[in-house]
Specification:
alpha/beta, FAD/NAD(P)-binding domain, seven-stranded mixed beta sheet, six-stranded mixed beta sheet, 22% strand, binds flavin-adenine dinucleotide
Length: 460
Amino acid sequence: MGSQEQPTRIAIVGGGIGGLFCSLAIHHHCSTASVPVKIDVYEQASQYKEIGAGVGVGINAARLFHKLDLGERLNAIAGHRTGVWISFRRWDTSEDIVTVPVNDSDKIRQAPCARTALLDLLKDAVEERGAATLHTKKQCKSVEDLDTSVRMHFGDSTTAEADVVIGCDGIHSAIRNQFVVDKPIFSGTIAYRGVIPIASLSTWPFQSYSVAWLAKHRHLLVFPISRNEELNIVAFVSDKPENEVADVQESWTSICDRQEVFDDFAGFDKTAQEVLSLMPEQPSKWRLNDRKPLDKWHYMDGKVILLGDSAHAMLPHLGAGAGQSMEDGWVLGRALSERLSGSRSSHFESLESTAQLYQTVRLPRAQKTQITSRAAGDTYEMQSPDMLDKSVEECVSIIAEKTRERMKWVWEEDLDVAYETARDGKGLASKATNGDKSVSGLVAANGTETAIQPVSIEAQ
Ligand SMILES: Cc1cc2nc3c(=O)[nH]c(=O)nc-3n(C[C@H](O)[C@H](O)[C@H](O)COP(=O)(O)OP(=O)(O)OC[C@H]3O[C@@H](n4cnc5c(N)ncnc54)[C@H](O)[C@@H]3O)c2cc1C
């Protein structure tokens, strides 16, 4: 690996939220430890841009922005809440099912943002700090083991070499696909997505918090972003016949007529209907996939490491996928900087043991989030096994019970303590209790998997 003259070359494949945050985290930890690194980010698109929609940055991830001295900038682009995180309501009457409070008076707080603004913040910070060199139009097709380094092969027939390659290339990760034989799993749910100006609503009684209207097989989630000037809309439907959703993609180019949304949400409360009426005439129609939990996140003796959705793509029902990818970046940055600064701990003897430490800290928590995200979607749409034969009235109290405290463990983890506990050998589980065998899917004709079997990590 690198020396004082030759910095360690770290390649990040994929310049989404996970990849850019990871470059900032590695730069931060290595600068603090005075370790020379050269970070390159290779993005397949022609620019570093996200389109449409919002993303909730949970307090666990917001905390990391503050550690990178980017917290104020995050707060400046975020929506703000006043004591309530989300109110779950009946779809027809808007009657409250459960309201989940949140402490939002602190400087470090929830940050629901426009994805475009969040990515711009990260990209600007990378450029201002000289954290990494950003490349575009570099679609990584494969990685090749050169023994002491890795060669990346790109779609434009060029190559590049690095000492460490971090695969941040999302749910369809080419890097993961080189080492793992599995496919994205279709959840059975599609989501209509859009963003509208809050000022365009005739009245909006939920100015500073999220609302989710819940019905059997569908729910409508809205939350204010962008200093509460815009409302992010995600309308989930889970009982579409397979032939109707076969062509729906995981992409902003997948759209439909707004009438389809009205038809699917007929009978919802009038405030909900007004929100939907303001969606674009052709809203985005999104296929919701996740991946099965994966019990190994590093390959080629630790020279290739997975991060974010490539390691643990999850359904969006906890609003936690982006936050989990940022947690990965923070922990990986700490581990790599300790290895490169010559720590004598046995965890840093090799790149592989360093990558294993990262996995030990992150995998159980990320997989628990994956599994719980599935379970949360079933709860909201009254489809969990204990609700299937129950009326809406009977389900409501179960939802309240399951949802009230659900986010606590996602938000409250102290990541640095978890890392130090694992590093110093204080008994964090070294391996998640579930592995490849515990989840299986059936590969369908369209290449996605269609069935999810239970896993052994308990959903919460
Ligand atoms: C409807 C919906 C709502 C969501 N809401 C939330 C939320 O509120 N909060 C939250 O935390 N999470 C949310 N998520 C999840 C979140 O969007 C993802 O977990 C997060 O974007 C993952 O980041 P990533 O960087 O790992 O992957 P991505 O964001 O997918 O980024 C991958 C990047 O890699 C690039 N790339 C792909 N392949 C290659 C290649 N071969 N070579 C080079 N570059 C490549 C892509 O162009 C992209 O820029 C939501 C997801 C969905 C679908």
